[in-house]
Amino acid sequence: MDEPRARGISLWLMPEGRARERLAALIDRLATRLGTAALAPHVTLLPGLPGPETEVLDGARALAAELTPLTLDFSGIDGTEAHFRCLFLRVAASPALREAHARATRRFGCESEPSFDPHLSLVYGALDAGAKAELERELRPEVPPSFEGRRLHVWRTEGRVGEWRELAAVELGSGADV
Questions:
Q1: Predicted model pTM
Q2: Number of domain units in the chain
Q3: Which ranges of the chain would DSSP assign to H, the alpha helix?
Q4: FRET partner for 151 with CA separation of 20 to 30 A, picked from 82, 103, 129, 134?
Q5: CATH number at residue 17
Q6: Contact 11/154 with Cβ under 8 angstroms?
Q7: 176 is a domain residue
């Protein structure tokens, strides 16, 4: 089966420093072992914005100016049948994270997503339940407890994962590109 393709421009919170290194190494190791696509570690705040790119970038800068850095706490490892949620770290939906998502939906005129389910994907693809359970036990000790999202990352998420590209990273609380 051909890899599903994403669309549009997405707003992400991404780990930095040691947390990023640990999560990126874990994702890369899993991708090599399982023959899946490697991806940048991220928590999607808002997916698939249609553009135009300049309007999304302007909106992202304005949104970032309204937000403050967020601590994202991991609450476990899980998996679904959905390609982009095959194996992932659950992120506790704190009031601050829910408010950031609500502000993003308002800023971009999107419908509110009551089922907002923040997560950081480890594997895109398809794995059977037994393999997911085994990986969950194996990976649990390697996962950092949390990370601080200090920037709003704007990614063009068109096409296959390997084709995705970062357009900007904007400091939360300032709206300034970094």
A1: 0.93
A2: 1
A3: 17-34, 53-66, 95-107, 129-139
A4: 82
A5: 3.90.1140.10
A6: yes
A7: no
